Model the fold of this input.
Amino acid sequence: MECVSLCLRDNGCCFTNYKDSTKECIVGTPNRCHESSEVAFGWQLLRRGRIYKNKVFFHVGDFDSWSNAQALCDNFGMRLATVNSSKENDFLKSLTNHPNGLWIGGSDSLSEGNWKWDKPTKAITFDDWGTSLLFLQPQGWLFENCLSFWNCDPWGSQYQWADANCGMNYPFLCER
Done:
C-alpha cells in the first residue's frame, strides 16, 4: 500500500512493485518506464486511485452491468467497493460525480432482502439507504438486486444507496 501511495504522489511514476523477499519498494521513474505501461488500462486505473485508510479506490468511468463491473475489478486483483463506516461512505461519495447510478459491491441476489458484500461474501454492517423517486430504498423488487450510489435528491447533491437492476450499465468503484 505504501508503494502505491508513493507512486500516486509522483506524476512521473509509471509503476510500483513490492518485493516480499527484500521488503523493498520499487517505484518506476520515467527513465525506467516502458511506453506501453503508461497507456495500459490497468496503469490508468492505478493512476486514478484514491487512498482511504488501508484501501485504494478506483473510479471506472466505463458503463457496464454489475457483474461485468465485478469481473473487470477482479481482472485487476480488486473487487467492487465495500463500505464499512459513515466516514468511508462519505469519502466514496466524494469520488462520485455521475448523475445516476454508480455500482458498489453489495447484492441481495442470493437471498432477497439479505444484503451482503460480494467478495468476500459478508453481511453489510453499515448502510446509507436513501429515497429515490419517493420510494424508500431498498425497494425489494425482485429484479433490483445490486447496490448502487444513487443521486437521491432532486437537487443532485446527495448520493445515497439504492437497489438497482443488475443489468443496468453504470460506472463503478473498484477497491484494492
Notes: The first strand starts at residue 16 and ends at 19. The chain is about 20% helix and 30% strand. The chain has two domains: 1-47, 53-175.
